[in-house]
Predict the structure.
Amino acid sequence: MKLKRRWALTLGIATALLNHSAMANNTLEEVMQARGLTQKDVLAAAKTYTPTGGRDEYLAFSSGGQSGQVLVYGIPSMRILKYIGVFTPEPWQGYGFDEESKAVLAQGRVNGKDINYGDAHHPAASETAGDYDGKYLFINDKANPRIAVIDLHDFETKQIVTNPLYKSAHGGAFVTENTEYVIESAQYAAPYSKDYVPLEEFNDQYRGGVTYWKFNKEKGRIEPENSFTVELPPYSQDLSDAGKGPSSEWSFTNSFCTERYVGGIERGRPPFEAGCSAKDTDFLQMIHWKKAAELVAAGKAKNINGMNVILMETAVAEGILFLVPEPKSPHGVDVTPDGSKIVINGKLDTHVSVYSFEKLMAAVDAKKFEGKDAYGIPIIAMQDVLHTQVELGLGPLHTQFDAKQCVAYTSLYVDSTIARWNYCEGKVLDKISIHYNVGHLMTMGGDTVNPDGKYLVSLNKLAIDRFNPVGPLHPQNHQLIDISGDKMELLYDMPVPLGEPHYVVAIKADKLKPAIRYQSGWNSRTNQPSAFKTRAGREKIEVTEGKVEVFGSTIRSHITPEIIEATEGDEVIIHLTNLERAQDETHGFAMYGQNVQLSIEPGKTVTTRFIADKAGVYPYYCTEFCSALHLEMQGYLLVKPKGYQATVSEGKAGAVYTKAEYDKQVATNIETQGVIDSVVGFITSQNYQDFPPVVASVEDATDQLNFAKEAKAKADAAAAKGDWQNGALWANQWWQYQVKAADIGLRAKAYLQEHGSKPVK
Amino acid sequence: MKLKRRWALTLGIATALLNHSAMANNTLEEVMQARGLTQKDVLAAAKTYTPTGGRDEYLAFSSGGQSGQVLVYGIPSMRILKYIGVFTPEPWQGYGFDEESKAVLAQGRVNGKDINYGDAHHPAASETAGDYDGKYLFINDKANPRIAVIDLHDFETKQIVTNPLYKSAHGGAFVTENTEYVIESAQYAAPYSKDYVPLEEFNDQYRGGVTYWKFNKEKGRIEPENSFTVELPPYSQDLSDAGKGPSSEWSFTNSFCTERYVGGIERGRPPFEAGCSAKDTDFLQMIHWKKAAELVAAGKAKNINGMNVILMETAVAEGILFLVPEPKSPHGVDVTPDGSKIVINGKLDTHVSVYSFEKLMAAVDAKKFEGKDAYGIPIIAMQDVLHTQVELGLGPLHTQFDAKQCVAYTSLYVDSTIARWNYCEGKVLDKISIHYNVGHLMTMGGDTVNPDGKYLVSLNKLAIDRFNPVGPLHPQNHQLIDISGDKMELLYDMPVPLGEPHYVVAIKADKLKPAIRYQSGWNSRTNQPSAFKTRAGREKIEVTEGKVEVFGSTIRSHITPEIIEATEGDEVIIHLTNLERAQDETHGFAMYGQNVQLSIEPGKTVTTRFIADKAGVYPYYCTEFCSALHLEMQGYLLVKPKGYQATVSEGKAGAVYTKAEYDKQVATNIETQGVIDSVVGFITSQNYQDFPPVVASVEDATDQLNFAKEAKAKADAAAAKGDWQNGALWANQWWQYQVKAADIGLRAKAYLQEHGSKPVK
């Protein structure tokens, strides 16, 4: 009894403790001195530091490079909030472990082979009228040309489409102004066929291309059957951008290695890097995608490997494909917010080149070309369409835009600087050093029709000496730069601990409305009710010849069922529904030796399936620390040998309980209920309904108290029959629910006190 | 010529730009107002913010939970520096993709089955004389009882050992005072045999245990043959701790579910959580590990599944195993820095209980027991050994220590608070709220004989409303607390973006000496020279019946070979050595459709192996953005059908170059060399040898310039023969190396200017 009384005391004093106000032990000056901080550092700290419970203004979605994932971080705090499993299985999320997500990854098989990673490069956020709508994110895999669709409702990957033509695709994902299409361009040229084609036939048989994947916004899925590809020469296509406003029916894709060099260093020939950058210019490829879609609808596409392909000769004949020389080995091709200009970054030039869309259209309309390439595609002369060229420095790579009229930012890889410049007047405004060797850069909404500017992130490819050393493999360094003032100011260095991001998009946080739970019994990957949804109390095990199928559940702190029996060789299928409704009450499910690890967020139903190929004992348990009795959230799969005959009679395990123990537990429970009532009393005395998180907690606590009632009824029933064993255990379970209710109630009470709730009449 | 001249200009003006000093656009007060920061927030910001290039005082090594990884972050900046692949394949690191690391993961197979995740729980740092020595890290997998060894020389996983007895092991890893042993205890009881044993035989046939894995510090590897296990009853063993100082020959392991309840909610019985927490007390299990090791040496162990096992009856007879009741369902068992006391956290009690080691020894010596458990193990009475009990609050879970005498910190799960208390005098000193539901907590060196105190990290299991929402699956929240003053102060909320950490250890950064490169041609997983090391210029392809074996290399910006030919059905084996010596110059290697993704840090040799089962064209490329010409770092695997006969004569691909183009390139190169010379002139005019990063850069740039010389020689030779094709291409390659040298030189120059170099005479 003494132990239990102490609980009550603690519940009583918790209020005072939660209100304690810590005194600062140091002055700001002392801290600055001790840590060697300048005033500028403190200002940067104040511009980025986000106190507990604070919110970031933007969420950045970054490719994870060869980790195959997408990472999400807040700006300006630069705290990484989530790694989303996309192309690579990830067990914390159960991604690639539960059958539902395995089905997504299976869509990404290449030539029938499972691919367990991706080289994720360029995320694109879905747009409406050229602005982010916060609904979907797309990301490409360069190594195995694929595009993944992530739903920003729950931050999960829902679909992967595999390009049936390419063998490499760096230039994705980019979206048209209303996300009609997701653009993916090829990179290293290869035959469209799956067959062997010798390099000697490179010019004739190897091809590039730009694919326009049709996106169905209602369904949130790409429709491969309504998608198409425009065939291109075997240049290495690189990044793309869709037009905006006046240019919105066009897309722009740059290229390198228009030399069509095929390598051969092992034969003493110069390496690819020399062969692929020998010419002073490569080609910008302009495609009228809107007309292209009409051509497909008109039956002018050829079906190759199941993809609608507009052949080059058709594209040329129909006037939807043009080339413009651009400074050599370009990376970014970026359309200005008003859609009037296209900025080209030639990595091996010192300039950015600004093309005028109006001049481009004038040349197209006048059919004024300087010639054709080897494939008959008309070439528009650079000087006919240049708005301006601006000398920025060594290695211009990618450009983003500001809210301020005509202001752009360009990354300079070799110079390790960011340049701010005016693309209307063609002049440099400011420069800032970064550390080191920036690839892409990104401003807030910087590739939309309405950039916010404000912050810029420099995605540096080398960190070298910026952080504490962690071995030969270094993190990347994302540097946050304040671009709101007259001079750019470095605010923060963020190491990327996993993967090599290539590009990031930042969406204003208030555009995102993520869910905190699913409808009960939900298959999150198909976004439909699961066929295996299980309600509380309806859990069951179906045993048929060679198969054991479990329809189970999880809720604080038990897995139902706790014992599963199977016979060696059986297929075991376990469906689990998380019955929780409370925010953040995810349960996990891991099992010894069967490679089983599930993540079951509130409401979700997931499935694991395996062959119980060896007789034995296989403990399972919850892998998310969900409650004080989490460690006790366990069970056993018992796999019997074939033809097993029990050799022992029903034995006994564990302790035996008496009436005294039952009585003691019941007394404790009554006392605990008194404490809970006092917490409930406090909450209901306040205007708690003005605080949504508290309303949710009250709902959760009420659930737990209802469970407590059910356990109490079972304890009472057992006691009435003189079954002290079950009486004591169910009384204990009743108390467990009380403890969970107290836990939730205390958090709610603290929340009210910290957020200044007021008494209600 | 014009384009090239601009490079020179830019090289010239770079200095001025790098020195630009940004003006603050806002005052601190304005920023505070705009962002709603209090003075306390600004102080916390100043205590955690780490400017570019700054170093953290501590590196924290955190378990990644069911992600199966370990993450590393800096304190106080709370920036995550690395996720280390441990139990789960991770492609960014090539972990589980190259053959060398696959061999490590294969050590962790369970019953012959590949396990592609782990439930990583408790990291332990290697110790010498009870203090961290910064050499190794150990981590357990709860789901598939395994221990991994990570070398802190390069932050890579080197070994995984699988426990042959357990089916679950939560209580690891913990080390003895000189890392003689790595301790791993069982969790959910199961038979030692791999056979089916019905739950009815739970009391007799199911077992727990504590395993002592022998660690060889010289070799950096666990020696399973020199390891042993002490058999324990089928209680759920939980955390352990090794003794220190006077108690250093002992280890302490707590337990829950000493009720030996076996579940049955699906049969209407109370769930595990009630059955496993019905009793008021569970047992602390004390083992004299030093004597146990002597018993093993004396042949008193039984070999079970290849493991030396000291049976309970032997342990009891030899006087090395004792039980002490402890408040129910405990988690942490933590030995004080001086080794004189053991702190027990009973999750369902409101107290921490402090046991006196002196009193424990007195009881052992006097053979003063209050009885025996069902397995004959002597039970020491709690009241005989208690130093004190302190009421802290709801759900005490884990305790860590301060540098200050007798000061400890305990996490309170249900209360969502941290208590600071005095374990000598038994009184509470301070409390602070955390958000929410803390599991473990951690102070700097807090489990060593010399804790630093200073900071505390609260590993909160629920984040709920702390961060911008990112869907139903929430990040964990690690809160940094300043414990240097009279009152604890919350400094920072760090979201954990991947996995659910359970425990963290923080090592003073200056104890770590990570490498930045390997010896050239190194197998990092065996820590020996690779048999497949390849030197520059010695690359080769060996073709034998059914096999193509490549001995290749990578260096900015080419992969050698650039073309690999194979025949359908061949086994393709590719060994790649990264010839770089420069810090952070990692190259990657990905190939279309073959699930190939390697990470090759400077000096490393790695291997990929696959069957080229389908004829076709398979591009490959470097996946780490290593240089301006990174995208051109590519190649092709060409897989011919069996019996393929060439049908075309040697064709032509790409462009043809003239003498004019050769001459133009050479002129550019001469001009570029002038610019490089001016950068070199600046560097060598300064005391650059006082700056190690610059010395390394100079070495790297010199490498590149030597490569440039070689390319120049080839260009000259081709030109001498009138071969303008190769002349122009090699001249371009010569320029490529110049650009890399300029890139490195510019970084070095900027470094000198930023770090106040001085002219030398």
